[in-house]
Structures are given as structure tokens and as C-alpha cells.
Design brief:
The protein is α/β, with parallel strands linked by helices and about 425 residues long. The protein folds into 2 domains: about 150 residues, Aspartate Aminotransferase, domain 1, CATH 3.90.1150.10; about 240 residues, Aspartate Aminotransferase, domain 2 (3-Layer(aba) Sandwich). The strands form 4 sheets. The chain has a 7-stranded mixed β-sheet, with helices on both faces. The structure holds pyridoxal-5'-phosphate. The site of pyridoxal-5'-phosphate has 15 residues, from helix 6.
Length: about 425
């Protein structure tokens, strides 16, 4: 008998993804999931970007299992350990140094939102200003500081207290608004009503916000403005980082260097919780213990993280993503857009969205349900949840990618009676 009843009877109402995919999963291999009855599903969600290197990636798993089979410490606060030393060395040698980045690495509590909190605190501490600017469409997490930066009303209402000290600016591409002109006006007009911020926090590609890709010019200009105004630029690379954009860091395509970078999700390589704040050295002024947390020293995450970086570099995953990205984009252009002229799409690397907003936003969730019936896992995003989100693990094979896309095509043909 299915185990599903125990969740419905015992688990909190707050559960969400399981409502879209109401089966009990028991196995996961690269981009395929299997339920308790052995049914196979193709994964176009990658646990919201935390399984970039595939489920149970054998190379990463070997490192984790080897470590577990010894007597290495597992949880160590922020004490010095061999596993952490190796991670920091590998991260520096293979990711930071080759890109000319000299960030200090702060190990935060193990969720993305905790690292966002650290970034906001540290920016405020450095500048002695309280306000932060975030952008319309932003998602930065669910704890109160990060939630104040997050924009979707449903999440904000969950906070049940005023969400303060953050102002929102229209993101690049907001219809009818020149975002940069707006930002410059806010900062330059002493009657704009906005306080000068400690930091500007942004996703270079808003994922939960509906796959909104900031242009290179926009990113460069925001960087320039931040430098000129002595505002700290924080890039939240939690979802679009770790190779998903086609580069390890999503801001590489713009040739900019943020003052702080937030990383989580796939940084541990194996799906083990971990979050980092990368800090320009001159901003690294927290006193010891000023952003403490018990679970900042998960050694399995460091082991997986080291193996994940080696995997990324050894397999040239950035090049792979750039190649396979075209398969998805061409598919959308050739097979999906011709079905209805009101459909639009956006994306980069291995994060794509098909927007039903101009037809009927509810069609996006209908597509998710139809796809799930055909054993494909997809997600929705954006305003009114109108965007169908495609984000497979970066390691998906061409065959499975094409198989999943063929299901997307079937779903759209059914919905548009083609
Ligand atoms: C861009 C971005 N920032 C922050 C977060 C919050 O991360 P976490 O859910 O691990 O707290 C997410 C999660 O989806 C995210 O996509």
C-alpha cells in the first residue's frame, strides 16, 4: 500500500511541492526519479537547482561514501578540519583564482536564506546604513530579512510582521519602465523619498520571479552605479549559480565583480545543505561569532562540495551547459512558440521559462499537471505563476533531455489542440 497517507495525516499543511507531484519517491539517478512502484519520472526541476550535478552523481557520491566509511568528523561548528581545508583550497584554486576573484569565504547556516541574512547584516554593518534595495520579482528567501527583499505577496504575507528596511526598484525589462533611469532618479533626487541604501541585492536571472534575465549592459551599469555611490553590490547566485547560467558564477557573462556573492543549493555538489557568503576582503568585518550557527560545519557538505567542483571542472560542465542550452532554446522556438503567437519565452543556460501570461496564467499549472501524468517533473514561477519553468540537472544526457522535451511538446499540443 502506498505510504502517501502518512504525509496527508501527519505532515504540516505547509508542504508544497509534494502536492504537485503526489507520489512517494524512492530512487534518484542523475535526471531520473523513481517512485515506490518503480515508475520512472524525468526531472526538469533538479530540486530547484540544488541537484545541478545530478542525483547520486557517482563521482561525488564516491567521495562522500569514502569519507563516511572512515571516522572523519561529521559536524564541527566552524572548527578547522581537513575536509574544510580541502574544500577552501579547491574552491580557491579551481573557481576563484582562475576568475581573478579574491573573496573571503564565510560558511553560513546551511540554507540560502541564512547566507542572504549574513550578506544584509554585513552590508549594513559596513556602511552604517539600514536601507537595502532589492528588485521587483526578486526571491531571496523566507527568513525575515531575506523575506523583506522577496517580492511575491503570498510569501510576504507568511511573515505576519511588517517587512522593513528594504525598498524595491523595477528590475531590468519591467514593461513600460526604464529601470536604470528609475534607479538613478531614486539615488540622485533629494525628493525621491528613498534613503540611500547599504546594498543593492539582485539575481542576475530571477528564477522564482519568472526567469527574467538581466542584460549585460544593465548589470554593468548597476555595478558602475554601486561603485560610484559606494553601495555594496550583492549578487544572489543561489539558484542560477554553480554552472546553471553556463558559467560557474552567473555574473561572469557581464564581466563584473560583485562585492558579495551568496551561494547555496548546488554548492555542496550532492544536495547536502550548505550556504556560503563570498566577501570582498575589505568588507570582511564581522566580529568572531557575530553570525554564528551550529550547522556551519557539515563536513559531508565540504566533501561533496570539493568533489562537485572537481566534477564541474573535469567535465567542463560550463561548455556542456552552453551546448545543451541551445537544444532547449531551439526546441521552444521551433516546437512550442508556433502553437500560439501569444506564448513567449525567456532563459539562459539551463534555466528556461515559457510564459502563458498573455493567454491565461492558469495554463502553466495545468501544463505541470499534464506533464506529471506523463512522468515529467516541471515547475511554475513568476507573476501569477504564469511561467512554466524548465531546469534539468546540468548532467542530463541528450537522450533524456530530448525525451523530456518531447513530453513538453505533447503537453502543449494537447493544450493547444494542435
Ligand atoms: C535566488 C534565491 N535566493 C535565496 C533562496 C533561499 O534559499 P533557501 O530556500 O535555501 O533558504 C532561494 C531558494 O529558492 C533562491 O532561489
Amino acid at each position: 500500500m502506498s505510504m502517501i497517507k502518512v504525509f496527508e495525516n501527519r505532515e504540516s499543511q505547509v508542504r508544497s511541492y509534494c502536492r504537485k507531484y503526489p507520489v512517494v519517491f524512492s530512487r534518484a539517478v542523475n535526471s531520473e526519479l523513481f517512485d515506490e512502484d518503480g515508475n520512472r519520472y524525468i526531472d526538469f526541476l533538479a530540486v530547484a537547482g540544488s541537484m545541478n550535478y545530478g542525483h547520486n552523481n557517482p563521482e561525488i557520491k564516491k567521495a562522500v561514501v569514502d569519507y563516511l566509511s572512515g571516522e572523519g568528523p561529521i559536524n564541527m561548528l566552524d572548527m578547522y578540519t581537513e575536509a574544510k581545508a580541502e574544500f577552501l583550497q579547491t574552491f580557491n584554486e579551481k573557481i576563484l583564482s582562475p576568475r581573478g576573484l579574491d573573496y573571503k569565504v564565510m560558511c553560513c547556516g546551511p540554507t540560502g536564506t541564512n547566507a542572504v541574512e549574513a550578506a544584509l547584516k554585513l552590508a549594513r554593518k559596513n556602511t552604517k546604513r539600514t536601507q537595502v534595495y532589492a528588485f521587483g520579482g526578486a526571491f531571496h528567501g523566507m527568513s525575515l530579512g531575506a523575506l523583506a527583499c522577496t517580492t511575491d505577496q503570498a510569501s510576504r504575507e507568511g511573515g505576519s510582521v511588517p517587512l522593513t528596511n528594504v525598498s524595491h526598484i523595477p528590475f531590468d525589462g519591467t514593461p513600460g519602465i526604464d529601470s536604470l533611469t528609475y534607479l538613478k532618479w531614486v539615488l540622485s533626487d533629494d525628493h525621491s523619498g528613498y534613503e540611500k541604501p547599504a546594498a543593492i541585492i539582485l539575481e542576475t536571472v530571477q528564477a522564482e520571479g519568472g526567469i527574467n534575465v538581466a542584460s549585460v549592459e544593465w548589470l554593468k551599469e548597476v555595478r558602475r552605479i554601486c561603485t560610484e555611490e559606494k553601495i555594496i553590490l550583492i549578487v544572489d547566485d543561489i539558484q542560477i549559480g554553480n554552472g546553471r547560467s553556463g558559467n560557474f558564477f552567473s555574473f561572469e557573462r557581464a564581466g563584473i565583480k560583485p562585492d558579495m556573492v551568496v551561494l547555496s543549493k548546488s554548492i555542496s555538489g550532492f544536495g547536502i545543505p550548505m550556504a556560503l557568503l563570498l566577501i570582498s576582503p575589505e568588507l570582511d568585518i564581522f566580529r568572531p561569532a557575530e553570525h554564528n550557527g551550529t550547522f556551519r560545519g557539515n563536513q559531508l557538505a565540504f566533501i561533496g562540495g570539493t568533489a562537485g567542483i572537481n566534477y564541474f571542472v573535469d567535465h567542463q560542465l560550463d561548455k556542456e551547459v552552453q551546448r545543451k542550452s541551445k537544444i532547449i532554446e531551439n526546441f521552444i522556438k521551433e516546437k512550442i512558440l508556433p502553437l500560439d503567437s501569444r506564448l513567449t519565452y525567456r532563459g539562459i543556460g539551463f534555466l528556461w521559462g515559457i510564459d502563458f501570461g498573455a493567454i491565461d496564467p492558469k495554463l502553466a499549472i495545468e501544463a505541470v499537471h499534464r506533464a506529471f501524468d506523463k512522468k515529467l517533473i516541471l515547475e511554475i514561477a513568476g507573476r501569477q505563476d504564469a511561467v512554466l519553468k524548465i531546469m534539468p540537472p546540468l548532467t542530463i544526457t541528450d537522450d533524456v533531455l530530448n525525451e523530456g522535451l518531447a513530453i513538453v511538446e505533447e503537453v502543449f499540443k494537447e493544450m493547444f489542440k494542435a
